[in-house]
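Appendix B, Record 12. Input sequence as logged:
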Amino acid sequence: MARRYLGAKGGDAYAEHSGTDGSVVVRIEPQRWLSVDYGKLGA
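Logged structural output:
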């Protein structure tokens, strides 16, 4: 995710210098995706 927002060089530098001791990674995968296309409502 850091690469997406900081670019390859900045993202790699961020990941390299961010502490991982005691860190927790949480990954969430949606089972359902709910959305609305407000453009179809004819405002």
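The chain has a mean pLDDT of 85.
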